[in-house]
Sequence to fold (680 residues):
Amino acid sequence: MKKHIYRLIFASLLIGSAISCSDLKFGDAFLEKAPGVDVTIDTIFSSKMYAERALVSAYATMRVGYPIHNSAWPLGSQWQFNTDGNYDRGCSQLDNDNFDAITDLMVSHNSWQSGAQLYYAGNYSADSENGLNSWTKMAFIPSTENNWTGIRKAFLYIENVDKVPDMTEEEKMVGKGECYVIIASHYLDMFRNFGGIPLLKSSVAADNVMSYDFSRQTAQETLDYILECLEKAETMLPWTVTPERDGHLTKASAMGLKIRALLFAASPIFNANAPYNPNTPVAKKANATHVNASEIPQMYWFGGYDPARWQAVVDACEDFLAENEANGNPYKLIKAEGTTVEDYRSAWNTCYADRYNGEILIQTGRHYPTFADTYLRCYFGVSDDHGNTGRGYGGGCITLNFVDLFTKTDGTKALYTDWLGGADKVSKIENDPFRDRDPRLYESVMIIGDHFRGRPAEMWIGGLERSSEESNRALTGFCSRKYIWDYNDETFMNRPSNYSYLRLPEIYLTYAEALNETGHKAEAYDWLNKVRERVGLPKMDDALLAQVQTASQYHTYDEPLQGDAKLREEILDERARELYFEENRWYDIVRWKREDIFKKKIYGIKISIADGVRTQDTNNDGLVNEEDDIDAFASTFTYSLPYAENDRYWATHWDTKWYLSAFPTSELNKGYGLVQNPGW
Fold:
């Protein structure tokens, strides 16, 4: 048993190709002698240069939300040959999909090996988490998700950096602080997917592995350790970094991540009068000797509802804001230079992608310098008119449900079915239902007629973006645009592959949510409105809230929550609009136990040519652009009634077990004290 644990925990100190060096070899057996060199921990930490490379190696394990599976990812999450000479396709995300593919915002029509299809068909199980080929949202296996690898790398740095002779004490302290944030990020990623987990509080070495406690800890113990790591980091890190150190973690990163952790902990998934699932798991076989049976429910539940958890979120947000103000408010929302829709769009599409912009608190990425080298182009790509037809595999099909969340620019509700009036409708593009909306719609979703590569976006059947009716690409009538932009040499193809793991708007919206849940509705409006106003939307108030949130009843809870239900719903909608593709929606519907959203009908539409479309490559340059004969805006199109996508498995076979992931059976069978989540 311990031999298996040893192999699990001792993940390699792998250095990616971008930081490799000619005279040191790092690999699965980095303590073994490399050709011509004695490679030991002492060797690695013998100089500042090598120590910094070890730190970068720990950074490289942090989570990125792109659907990608090539050599930009570490070993175990890329195309590679296994021992039989066949391809293994372990991937770090939901296989070829973004997390939003298993929410109401997106549908995946990728027809092969898609993680979303594993969920849609109800085939996800504990066995799905086994091995390198795990195509799940957050696999437990370290070689797949890099959590344990990253934790070990960070601890190795913390435990050994003091040996480095040519680093200052301040440099060593800052590096340690960065590693504590990396450790906390990995534990928080697992906490949000599994609840309580085994906690490794050192790198674990050969001389102590036999006595180490690898058993699953309670949710509270896991949360406490995440907070402990982040609070240590706060004392070690500067509030900001210089442009030259852009990408390094800061005190703001630590405090922001603490807010994310506390929000999840305050939410009903764990903070409730009863566990989210009534079935209490049993520690089986050898696992039973390592855990207290009475503590098993506390591994995925705090044991009761405590309103103080919401106040802790408020306090953490206020601490962050006070610290930012004390430092001159260097973290702020990117504001538009003017008041046109294009001004707002231009500002918003840089806030999540441009480096050193004052809004991103934690950015992650991989060593490829441009999106051109990622599979984002294939699974979420759009038109074929850029020299490579290998794109548009069916990922990123945006739902009508998501499009309907975007209000008009005056803040009022705008539903497609209200515009349609109960039957298919013929209309010109300028009069269709998608005009004059929240500017974020056009930067998140490819909308018919919007400007794209110097021409109208052809989202109709037979158009360049939508393609044929049989094609999987943009099958719902929409496809993803965020992080793709115009897909040309000036934007997509030569734009650094930066990913916003944590942005300031998440802090503002979390603060608004926690203020609402602690009975401070007026103040909650203030922070919600900071996010709305930066894209030109009017302030939310009671009158506008009543217009956009019109349901007769909202999801109810047994706990004495203080929050206004309509405002709670609006904040969740705002989080969907602002943080789409940034891996928030899944966790939002999980932490609020939103069975209704899981079971929701998902809709798409069909747009077809009614009359007069003429799109010709009159320049004969292989591209259709603004210099060609394009008359799409003078054309009319038929907009169909919404059609329902196939129900996902959980729509008709609902079980609350879906809120948390399953631990892999391969690990449960090792008997070191891992207990399965309820229902799996």
The longest strand covers residues 360-365.
